[in-house]
Specification:
single chain; alpha/beta; Rossmann fold; eight-stranded mixed beta sheet; two-stranded antiparallel ribbon
């Protein structure tokens, strides 16, 4: 794999025009947004191999880990990490903590959930990003490896996310952070979990998270218009792959036809977002979830929630896992981490 990674990295250092010429000959443009040349090259290389094997959970998980090894970044200098288990009610959940050498003792712990449609992903897929967040913000980060479907369908993974957030809030001092408070964040399904956690705390009449960091979040499974159509073929999250994720994550035959309306699946359907934690909402231009992420940010703002919103027009869904191969993805991750750092400082963290 190291040789393959070396070859791939050398190819990705080629000038943009050469990469585009090797990947279809002309830039990919969707909704007036031009895809980053390196993402175009990766997408072309992955999707133009001819017939693919039937998509199974094993194949999807292996593919995700291979792509992470090829294109993912590494642990930031000055950040240490440690694997551990969270002892939750009736179960033990793997997790990984990140502690930066520049940790601010006033900065709340950030609990982070990885992407993967509730079916794929691991602590490795968000490893580089979590270390970037820890170092840039100056806070400890706890990455949670929640249970995956179809072995553990909804709401198992969500329950792990909620319970691990509550655990982290109560054990924050173990990470050198203030007691009784934590921020929450994640990308894609992790963003879905994070948005739901903020709402769930309100429903339970518990304190809000310090901050919501929602990176290309899935906020509803009922949306079918806009970017869901124009980006339906966008690598790596196509309409077909989304449908496959949901078929595994939400076994409707067992849980009922109206499950998509459940606020613990589609947080965008909440009748009110007033009183939720300040939010940072990040989207990608070449992503079926782009429009629903923006709509959720606008709905939060309309409810007088403090929101920072930004769309990275040239990037695709999942860009946080490509920091080692796509410089624009690495820059975006550092920029969003800097936004979070400013939010922390503004709120005294």
């Amino acid at each position: 794999m190291s040789l393959q990674k070396t070859i791939v990295n050398l190819l990705l250092k080629l000038p943009d025009p050469i990469l585009v010429s090797m990947a279809g000959g002309k830039p990919v443009v969707r909704d007036g947004r031009t895809l980053d040349a390196r993402f175009q090259f990766i997408a072309h290389s992955v999707t133009k191999r001819g017939p693919q094997p039937e998509l199974t959970k094993e194949f999807a998980r292996q593919g995700t880990e291979i792509l992470t090894m090829l294109f993912g970044g590494t642990l930031e200098p000055g950040v240490s990490c440690q694997d551990r288990s969270l002892e939750l009610e009736g179960r033990s959940i793997p997790a990984r903590s990140y502690r930066p050498s520049n940790q601010n003792p006033l900065a709340p712990l950030l609990v982070f959930y990885h992407f993967g449609g509730g079916v794929v992903g691991s602590l490795e897929t968000c490893h580089a990003l979590c270390s970037i967040l820890a170092k840039t913000i100056g806070c400890p980060v706890l990455s949670v490896d929640y249970r995956l479907a179809p072995e553990h369908p909804w709401p198992a993974g969500l329950n792990d996310a909620i319970d691990s957030y509550l655990w982290a809030r109560d054990h924050a001092q173990e990470f050198g952070a203030p007691a009784g408070v934590a921020a929450v964040g994640g990308d894609s399904m992790g963003g879905n979990f994070s948005a739901i956690i903020a709402q769930e705390m309100q429903r339970r009449e518990l304190p809000q998270p310090f901050l919501q960091l929602l990176i290309y979040p899935a906020t509803t499974i009922l949306e079918t218009e806009g970017s869901m159509q124009t980006c339906a073929d966008a690598y790596p999250l196509t309409a077909d792959i989304m449908a496959w994720f949901m078929a595994n994550y939400l076994p409707n035959s067992d849980l009922g036809p109206n499950l998509g309306e459940d606020l613990r699946v589609s947080p965008a359907l909440a009748p009110s977002l007033a009183g939720l934690a300040p939010a940072i909402v990040i989207t990608a231009g070449h992503d079926p979830l782009r429009d629903q992420g923006k709509a959720y940010a606008e709905a939060l703002e309309a409810a007088d929630v403090k929101v920072h919103f930004q769309c990275y027009d040239s990037l695709a869904h999942g860009f946080t896992a490509y920091t080692g191969g796509v410089p624009a993805a690495d820059r975006a991750c550092r920029e969003l981490a800097a936004v979070a750092a400013r939010a922390y400082r503004a709120m005294g963290g």
